[in-house]
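S.,

Sequence below, as promised.
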Amino acid sequence: MSKVRVVNFEPTSKGENTHLYTIENNSGASVTLCDLGASVVSIKVPDKNGSIRDVVLGYEHIDGYEFDGTYFGATVGRCCGRIAYGKFTLNGEDYQLPVNNGSNHLHGGFNSFSRKVWLAVVDDKVPNTVLFMLDSPDGDEGYPGNMKVFVRYTFDDENVLTIKWSAVSDKDTICNMTNHSYFNLNGHKSGKVTENHKLKINANFFIPINSNLNPTGEITPVKNTSFDFTEPKLIGNGIDRKNEQIGFANGIDHMFVLNHSDEEFVLAAEAEGIDSGITLKCYTSQKGVHVYTANYVDVSSNMGKDSATYGENPAFCLETQGFPDAVNHKTFPTTILKANENYTQTTKYIFGINK
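The prediction came back faster than expected:
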């Protein structure tokens, strides 16, 4: 029998009802999801002393998820990351998307997937799973094609959260989805992650950005740069304020090109909260992981869940995805989804303990 608990949350500003879906495993660990944005609201796992800690940032009320600009836990699409000036050309036709981040289109626009209420399905025959579904019409935030989108969350007894995205469109379009959870493995209220989290990234190359935070089109070795996380190191040791790339983003906000093998899933990153002993391994079918050190977070105690205040660098994000702004860079692997073809990607977040 499915161990999914469903409770009412709060209505949106449009009067839409929202709900919280909690998947609890046999050890008492749990993941809570919301149908607004098909979002991750909490991940509660044991630390080295056996105490349960919530290791993702979140909001206390629905308006945070609906209006704030952090995208806490959200399913992001149709295209995550930035599209320069909101412009691209597809099949000889020019498209102008809404510009919602300086001069760029970010994370799908103003009314993106993260701002919509998804249809949720809980099936007793599929234990520990919640399936979210969304119809995105032709022209939604400027994107072509009627698209059907599915996001499936499963949380098992080994404390593995599996996220599977799938989509199909009746026209050629762009599709590059991710989950935007903010991880603090010492607990979401424990403050900065820079000096008490170790991070390792399975990437020998990263993608530099310009002053508008868009990719330059280069793919650059991490060796001898602050972006070298090929061995575990404190997150703060990668935030070299003298580095021009770090200066552009006020921290790390960059795509790391994963060292892929022939296997379906590749280990993208490993992290550890030094105080809690909680570890995280991220496996993905994607070509890269966008690492964000939460450089511009500013959430007051009246908005953060459990009355938490979140300031600069309170978490890190491991956003598994295709290359940023790929539609405008012919040398990048494409993020174009052909008509009637299936988009499928999977990411696993595996939680453990280093005692």
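The chain has two helices and 27 strands.

Coffee later?
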